[in-house]
Design a protein that fits this description.
single chain, Methane Monooxygenase Hydroxylase, Chain G, domain 1, three-stranded antiparallel β-sheet, 60% helix
């Protein structure tokens, strides 16, 4: 969602250029932490609550439709088109939000979300073991001869 905003790269660039204490790799965690905190606040002020934005845009389009039905002139048509474009924009943000949530869930749950019942694990002794989703060993290759 952030990457689609016109000011996103400028915000990141400006924040990254602020001076930090230390040198080399000592600066990286400072910059990342500062950027993370700034983007949290930026997200709240620029995007706000996505669900509230969708509800407000739907209500605005409903009111604009009613105004156009009562007075079909150019002014009300322009307002209706503006509200429609705003709804499309916030619905795209809503979709991006849910895509991001789905990606986070997939990364957290691992292969279980893809319907794979076992995981392959290579241990430090170079033997392969199979594990079920509850992390119980199902099969150990070293037992096969």
């Amino acid at each position: 969602m952030w990457t689609t905003h016109s000011e996103f790269l400028g915000v990141v660039r400006r924040n990254w250029q602020y001076p930090t204490v230390g040198s080399g790799m000592m600066q990286l965690p400072q910059k990342l932490t500062r950027l993370k905190n700034y983007l949290k606040e930026w997200n709240k002020t620029v995007f706000g609550n996505v669900f509230d934005n969708v509800a407000a845009a739907e209500q605005g389009l409903k009111e604009a439709d009613e105004a156009y039905d009562q007075d079909p002139c150019d002014r009300t048509l322009v307002e209706r088109n503006r509200c429609s474009a705003e709804l499309v924009q916030v619905l795209a943000q809503d979709e991006a939000f849910w895509r991001q949530k789905a990606g986070i869930r997939w990364a957290k749950d691992g292969s279980e979300t893809r319907g794979i019942s076992t995981l392959l694990y290579r241990s430090s002794d170079s033997e392969y073991h199979f594990w079920d989703p509850a992390r119980r060993r199902v099969f150990d290759k070293s037992n096969c001869n």
